[in-house]
Amino acid sequence: MAVKLSKSKGVISSKKYHEYIYELNSIKKKINKVLESNDKIKKIATKIKTATNCLYLGRGYNFPVALEGALKLKEISYIHAEGYPAAEMKHGPIALIDNCAN
After folding, report:
1. Superfamily of domain covering 48-102
2. Cβ count near 102 (within 10 Å)
3. pLDDT digits over 4-43, tens only?
């Protein structure tokens, strides 16, 4: 609905409108692809299940995604998690990273 309103008000171009509609129509395929990755997800979860800290990195529009991911991990696991801008890692926090895969 938001995409259609944006197009009708001239906020987005017709080209952008069609790009967004295409992406929305492909959500089912993308969800199925993620669900097919269940074995990979379990393998990663096995490696990190004993972690007591987690750092989510994001750059640009992915930074808010990193913040939200960290918040969700805190909510479901009660472990320390932070979202951090990827570009800032070289300014010191990289020293806080450890190997949790023992």
Report:
1. Glucose-6-phosphate isomerase like protein; domain 1 (3.40.50.10490)
2. 6
3. 999 999 999 999 999 999 999 999 999 999 999 989 989 9
- 27 residue type, one letter: I
pTM of the shown model: 0.59
Sign of the dihedral through C-alpha 47, 49, 50, 54 = positive
Q: Write the CA distances from 77 to 2, 7, 25, 35, integer angstroms.
A: 34, 41, 33, 21
**Closest to 99 measured CA to CA, from 50, 32, 35, 29:** 50
Q: Which helix (H) or strand (E) holds 81?
A: strand 80-85
